[in-house]
């Protein structure tokens, strides 16, 4: 009796695993299709964008604090140096609070970005920083502290609880269906840094499911989830094998970055570095941006305009009185649109203009 039960359970697990594999392979882009898509676009350069008036994703997207005037002004700064791509985080709680209003605000944002010649990579889920996101008024920044108010999506333990998956599936599929053929959307980044903040492989079920949900919708844009921790073998393998375009994060120097590029080239897919540029880690525009251009890898740095996210301060070295750091960690512009470093802005503009010629 016990043997037959065990055999049945094993058989059931086999069929579930096979079914998942089939769903994941459905509509996955071939390498040839990925390269064809990539060749149709100019070299992708830009930033992870959160307006300076928003401490996190919810403050960016909730109706009460959505700020199209600031978005317009700051994307204008990006346009002035030739940036053509922004990576922008969504949030499932903003959708939960107001389905239709949230989608209208996404459309408004896309209209502004398009006016500035910018395409957008949207990010769904995120395992980084605050574990308990809440709808409503967001906290004030902690002085001198990097991303003191940034929140995970859907949170912890929310991301591990499968009872939440049906609502998350409805959210993902609704957003994808709404913008599945929108040329202003460049690519869908389904999960930022899965396994971060101590979650490790507990994030794998949601990661697998969001790929399945997205494959079922089959948008015209490619799907990805960026590699970021090189010792996360199981997660990295899954992300690399299921992404149409290979994306990754890297915040170290040229030699180490080149080593990662060489390893990722073995997958035979186009690549976009969706996070880099941490000055005090020697990941700078001066050394990394030319490398990415040489390798024809998209270059999306962290941060555009210094603001409430406080990401001009380094990850783990807060300045408690909120005074100016000796050297900014992230960000390109001050709020008034003047570059933090004019030589960096000149280099970015020069390299982008070379592509246009």
From TrEMBL:
Example of a GO MF term: hydrolase activity, hydrolyzing O-glycosyl compounds
Keywords: Carbohydrate metabolism, Glycosidase, Hydrolase, Polysaccharide degradation, Xylan degradation
Single GO biological process annotation from the record: xylan catabolic process
Recorded superkingdom: Bacteria
Pfam families: Cellulase
Xref: SUPFAM superfamilies: (Trans)glycosidases
Keyword Mitochondrion appears in the UniProt entry: no
UniProt entry tagged with the keyword Transport: no
UniProt record similarity statement: Belongs to the glycosyl hydrolase 5 (cellulase A) family.
Designated name of the protein: 1,4-beta-xylanase
């Amino acid at each position: 009796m016990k043997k037959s039960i065990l055999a049945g359970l094993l058989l059931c697990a086999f069929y579930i695993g096979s079914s998942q594999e089939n769903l994941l392979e459905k509509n996955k882009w071939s390498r040839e299709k990925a390269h064809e898509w990539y060749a149709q676009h100019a070299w992708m350069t830009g930033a992870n964008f959160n307006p300076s008036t928003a401490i996190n994703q919810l403050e960016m997207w909730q109706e009460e604090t959505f700020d199209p005037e600031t978005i317009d002004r700051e994307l204008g700064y990006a346009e002035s140096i030739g940036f053509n791509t922004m990576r922008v985080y969504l949030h499932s709680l903003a959708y939960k609070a107001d389905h239709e209003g949230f989608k209208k605000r996404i459309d408004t944002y896309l209209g502004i970005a398009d006016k500035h010649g910018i395409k957008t990579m949207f990010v769904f889920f995120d395992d980084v920083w605050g574990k308990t996101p809440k709808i409503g008024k967001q906290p004030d920044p902690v002085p001198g502290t990097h991303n003191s108010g940034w929140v995970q999506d859907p949170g912890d333990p929310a991301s591990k609880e499968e009872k939440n998956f049906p609502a998350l599936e409805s959210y993902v599929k609704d957003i994808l269906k709404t913008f599945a053929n929108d040329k202003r959307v460049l690519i869908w980044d389904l999960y930022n840094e899965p396994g971060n903040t101590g979650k490790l492989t507990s994030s794998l079920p949601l990661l697998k499911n969001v790929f399945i949900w997205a494959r079922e919708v089959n948008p015209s844009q490619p799907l990805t989830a960026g590699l970021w921790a090189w010792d996360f073998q199981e997660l990295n393998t899954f992300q690399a094998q299921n992404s149409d375009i290979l994306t990754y994060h890297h915040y170290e120097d040229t030699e180490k970055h080149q080593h990662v590029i060489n390893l990722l080239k073995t997958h035979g897919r186009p690549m976009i570095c969706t996070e880099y540029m941490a000055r005090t880690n020697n990941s700078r525009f001066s050394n990394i941006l030319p490398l990415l251009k040489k390798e024809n890898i998209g270059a999306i740095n962290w941060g555009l305009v210094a603001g409430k996210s406080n990401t001009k301060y380094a990850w783990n070295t807060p300045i408690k009185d909120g005074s100016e750091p000796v050297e900014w960690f992230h960000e390109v512009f001050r709020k008034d649109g003047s570059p933090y470093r004019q030589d960096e802005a000149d280099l970015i503009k020069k390299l982008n203009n070379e592509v246009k010629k």
